[in-house]
Amino acid sequence: MKSKMPRIIMVIAVFIVIAYLANQAGDWIRDRLKMEITPKNKSIIFGATVFAVVLYALLISLPFVPGVEVGLGLMVTFGIPMAIPV
Known about the structure:
The chain is mainly α. It has three helices and no strands. Helix 2 (about 40-60) packs antiparallel against helix 3 (about 65-80).
């Protein structure tokens, strides 16, 4: 019987590579947008927050969507004020 260890190592390596690439993509998007919360763009940030909360509500109502992870992502992205809507 063959050992499953090489396959397990390969799957873990693929997940690590995917996570790394997703992190790099997020950094790239952040650098391109260069969004900072200032009084000048306060309405844009508010609109993005409302959109994120509505999208979260729609996604959490679907079966098999990891709602906890989406909620944590919103709280990490938007900070403490997002904890109440989530």
